[in-house]
Design goal:
It is a single chain. This protein is 27% helix and 23% strand. The protein has six helices and twelve strands. The protein folds into two domains: 141 residues, HIT family, subunit A (2-Layer Sandwich), CATH 3.30.428.10; 131 residues, 2-Layer Sandwich (HIT family, subunit A). The protein is globular. A hairpin with a 6-residue loop joins β1 and β2.
Amino acid sequence: MATDGSHLLQDEITGDWVIVAPVRRNRPDGRAKRQGDVFAPSRIPADRLIASYGRGENRMSVIQNIFPVFHQHVGIRGRQEIIIEGSRVMPFCDSSPARIAALLDAFTERFTILRKDRTVQYLQAFKNEGAAAGASQPHPHSQIFAVSFVPDRLRDEAARRKRALKRLGMTSHEHALCLASEERLIYSDRHVFAFANPAARFAYEVRILPKRRVDNITKTTPAERRSLARAIHALLPLMKRRKYSYNFFFHDVLDERDEPFEIRFVPRANIWGGFELDAGISVNPVPAEIAAREYRMA
């Protein structure tokens, strides 16, 4: 069995997949004071810098992840990039809409480049904010995974989506518009809408979509990305007030044409207990209508 690179294992009984990634044991924990800010500009070697976008505190610096889950030449093939946001440590909740838009622009540029790699089948971009959401560094940053396989869960989800939408006689985008009722709506402008997800696995989960159907982020316009940034910004006051950790993420399955682009914003307000871990069924204590009202009030 390979030990120098990551490898996939499947539980033969449950069918669950897991990635064993030994190199991740060595990644630094920036929350420990002795580590300091490992993403400070002065500590980033020039040979790790892939690209940079924007200026000043809206500058997004893209570097290679030196503690990757995926590798280009061994184990599970893939690429991992880290986007370092600005030059100083600050909570993402204090970001301006312009700074968030600069991050979305950087995601768009990187996806445009990574989609040209013929080995890439699946792209994911995500932000982990707070220890409970998996963040190990205080400096605001996001990540991109570009890998050579598509997770079974996404294939299964795509098949279920196609069957359900055929039965309903609508597209994925039309279905999202139907779910975004007045009681669930949090943000809306000319270009995008954001609503509390009624079937959320986690409390206060939000879906954010452009109002026109878009296949992936590379197809969005600058105006749409400004609106997406404002929608994300509208969610942050409640996160700051409640001191919640949170993730937001989106993906692109390159050969999937029936899945519209959307951003999922997932606060880590509820922790899974024994029932959830064993049954695989989430218990969400906050109905979507209440979550939307709290976002709007905040």
